Amino acid sequence: MPFVSVAAYAPPRVGMLAAALVAEVFDAHVGGPPRFDFALCSDRPGEVPTDVGIPLTVTHGLERIAAADLVLALPWADFRTPPPAPVLDALRAAHARGALVGAHCVGAFALAATGLLDGLRATTHWRFAELLAARYPSVTVEPDALYVDEGRIITGAGAASGFDLCLHLLRREYGAAAANAVARDLVLPPHRDGGQAQYLAAPVPEDGEDERLAGVLAWARAHLHEPLPVAELARRALMSRRSFARRFTAATGTTPHAWVLGLRLGRAEELLETTDLPVEEIARMVGYGSAAVLREQFVRRRGVPPRTYRRTFTRT
Length: 316
Prior knowledge:
The structure is a single chain. This protein is of the alpha/beta class and 316 residues long. Helices cover 46% and strands 11% of the residues. The protein has helices spanning 16-26, 63-66, 85-96, 108-114, 129-135, 161-174, 176-185, 209-222, 230-236, 241-252, 256-274, 279-285, 291-302, 306-313, and strands spanning 5-9, 37-41, 46-48, 56-58, 70-73, 100-104, 121-122, 140-141, 147-149, 153-156. Helix 3 links the parallel strand 5 (70-73) and strand 6 (100-104). The longest helix has 19 residues, at 256-274. It starts with a strand and ends with a helix. The model is unreliable at 197-207 (pLDDT under 50).
């Protein structure tokens, strides 16, 4: 069953942005499906200081972790010092009983301190990736990833990429339609391609290339049923194919081909969940020549054929 109860551990000097972020996704959207039982918790309930000096009132203790289907360790300013032993024990116990356990930004240091990340891949804010790798050599740190999914343990990159992690969990457990609905409500993209490298300091073009690129991306989203070769996208951006590919990768962190593929599969997921259209028709609508081609891409990228995906995420 998908997770329903969500507990977010808020240590002293917790990141205010992180606490607000998970509350927006799992608490503020109680008016529509999916509905979650969400709570912040702490080892010392009461007023918990945040990294910006504004305290949060937290009414739940660590017992809330023991009852949650999804446990999130929020980032905090003093992450270089591991959380107290009872917190680490609670996180280990949650994982041992089958709960999903996650963290983004420097919250990954709390999971690493439990030993749960040993032998696994993980990510954190790019600024602290080297520190995480040096302090916990048994963890394979992927500094460029927006999030890393290791099944029942998931880690995300810094700051607002917590939204990427949360939306990925919604998409994985509840399907693309649920994740897209929350993303629309928050005015966020339901899925960001590429990695953290696209958000590092880079020169800003002064010739309007970004505006042209944004227009081409919007046009592509509205014309998924068409072939969308790179040459056509470059022509619409008024660039050579080579310049377009270079500019596209710099702006999005991925290639035009990979971006279009992700867009097609994401739209196919939503149509499989929310309509009764035949797979053949869905394939045509998202730009594949046949249901066989869609099936091949779906199995390769999602691990299951389209009809199995539909049975999994169709709610009756």
